[in-house]
Amino acid sequence: MKNANFNKICLLPSAISELFAEVPEKGKITITDRYGLKAALLNNTLSKDEEDSINRLLHSVRQGRLKIVDEL
């Protein structure tokens, strides 16, 4: 079995609100943005407002207003 000690990914308290403000302006979600969202979801300590912000971003992707890109 591989080493069971994984580094815990932690976000800054303002990371979700910053992503929510910056991503629509750029019109795309980058790999870095996706990792930030993934870490926030896995952390399982999101406020209702943060969950709503993530859901709005995902809705924008589904509607074609945001693109998912493989760049940093």
Account of the 3D structure:
- The protein is mainly α and 72 residues long.
- The chain has one domain.
- Helices cover 57% and strands 6% of the residues.
- It has helices at residues 15-26, 31-43, 48-63, and strands at residues 28-29, 67-68.
- α1 runs parallel beside α3.
Question: Can you tag this structure with a few keywords?
Answer:
72 residues; mainly alpha; two-stranded parallel ribbon
SSE diagram, text form:
Layout: H1 15-26, E1 28-29, H2 31-43, H3 48-63, E2 67-68
Parallel strand pairs: 1-2
- SSE ordering: HEHHE
**Annotation, overall tally of beta strands:** 2
The first-to-last residue Cα distance is 32 Å
Average pLDDT number? 80
What low-confidence regions span 5 or more consecutive residues with pLDDT below 50? Answer: 1-7
Q: Total helix count? A: 3
Shape: globular
**What characterizes the major β-sheet?**
2 strands, parallel
Strand order of the largest sheet: 1-2
Radius of gyration: 13 Å
Domains counted in the coordinates: how many? 1
Percentage of residues assigned to helices:
55-70%
Strand content range = 5-15%
Structural class: mainly alpha
Summarize the structure.
By secondary structure, this protein is mostly helical.
